[in-house]
Write a structure and sequence with these properties.
By secondary structure, this protein is α+β, with helices and mostly antiparallel strands. The protein has 16 helices and 8 strands. The protein is elongated. The structure holds iron/sulfur cluster (SF4).
Length: about 350
């Protein structure tokens, strides 16, 4: 595919900024230059749609109005607020970042690009966004929307999942950055990709780049941008044992370095290649938890993660010796009100709502 630079930098940015002035959505993080708010919004919006992220952004600002408030919070409080948004490492990194900002920058989000990159979980895109939207510094933001717009308008078929492709697009984005008002331009190109030059059915008729756009001229919209890596999803079977003693249920905090670290769940039957049966559970518990009765076997929950498809089953097991279970499995017992307050994954919340809280 040929590369075209028949659209000048000035034309490109002026068109986008004019379009943005007429079509931008009114989003709260666009009406502020508070770098902490911008940092929050950028972390929340990673891999999350605006409509889904917006209430979380508002909740975080309300609960933690400053970086210091966030840094001083308990991790469980941060995870609890994040509950339902997924990718919990973002919440943990955000919390660590707040602590770094307080410890190393006096509670002020740094305004140097290089310093921003030192913060936990902040890569080139997020550092550029904070530098641009918070401090109006001349850094080009390149997110998925920007890749799409640039690849189509200029007909670039470099792979956006490969290092060389990423460099090509970053270089072009830097070249195209206008001399003034880079913050508005960056917002404009991302918004144009999100709302107009969309992955499917871009609105090419009447588009501001209809004449010069290479993808439009050569009918390449569905082929650009090129992204080579395909995720191979792993299938896993999780079987949870939920010990019940009177009105209490046994749970523990996950210490494993996985996506649910710091969240609460139940005792997991390890190494199962399939969904467990009642017999499997009985065998696993035999002689380990005193008297027990399996009182409920749930349906199988299907839970989709980026890299994995989980098939999850829960067994509620009534026990008579609380101390034996606590010490054997390193669990603590919680009543329903306490369980409700613990930070949990969306999967555990779904189970509780359908079988315990109802
Ligand atoms: S003409 Fe179509 S493909 Fe090209 S920038 Fe406009 S919407 Fe996107």
């Amino acid at each position: 595919m040929p590369t075209s630079h028949n659209i000048s930098r000035d034309f490109f940015s002026t068109q986008l900024v004019t379009w943005y002035g007429q079509h931008q959505r009114d989003l709260p993080w666009r009406n502020t230059t508070n770098a902490y708010y911008i940092l929050l919004s950028e972390i929340i919006l990673q891999q999350t749609r605006v409509e889904q992220g917006l209430p979380y952004y508002l909740k975080f600002i309300e609960n933690f109005p400053t970086v210091v408030d966030l840094a001083n919070a308990e991790e469980s409080q941060v995870l609890r607020l994040w509950q339902g948004l997924g990718y919990y490492s973002r919440a943990r990194n955000l919390h660590t970042t707040a602590k770094q900002i307080v410890a190393n920058y006096g509670g002020m989000v740094p305004n140097r690009f290089e310093d921003l990159l030192q913060l936990k979980g902040i890569g080139i895109y997020t550092a550029s966004a904070i530098a641009s939207f918070g401090y109006n510094l001349p850094y080009a933001v390149v997110d998925g929307n920007v890749y799409r717009v640039l690849s189509r308008v200029f007909g670039i078929d470099a792979d956006i999942a490969a290092g060389t492709g990423i460099k090509i697009f970053q270089h072009l984005a830097n070249e195209l950055l206008p001399r003034h008002n880079t913050s508005t331009y960056n917002q404009a190109i991302m918004e144009f990709g999100a709302m107009y030059c969309t992955p499917r059915n871009p609105l090419c008729n009447g588009c501001i780049f209809e004449i010069g756009c290479v993808a439009n001229k050569q009918n390449l919209q569905t082929l650009l941008p090129v992204k080579s890596k395909k995720l191979v999803k792993k299938t896993r079977f999780l079987n949870y044992i939920v010990f019940k003693y009177k009105d209490q249920y046994a749970a523990s905090i996950r210490a494993d370095s996985d996506i649910w670290k710091g969240l609460y769940d139940f005792w997991l039957l390890e190494n199962m290649q399939v969904s467990a049966t009642i017999e499997d559970v009985a065998t696993a518990l035999d002689g380990h938890s005193g008297d027990n009765t399996i009182i409920l076997e749930t349906k199988i929950f299907k839970h989709l993660l980026t890299h994995q498809t989980l098939f999850v089953k829960f067994f509620i097991v009534e026990i008579s010796n609380k101390n034996a279970v606590e010490s054997q499995y390193r669990l603590n017992f919680y009543d329903k009100a306490e369980l409700e307050q613990l930070p949990k994954s969306i999967l555990i919340t779904r189970f509780l709502e359908q079988y315990i809280f109802c």
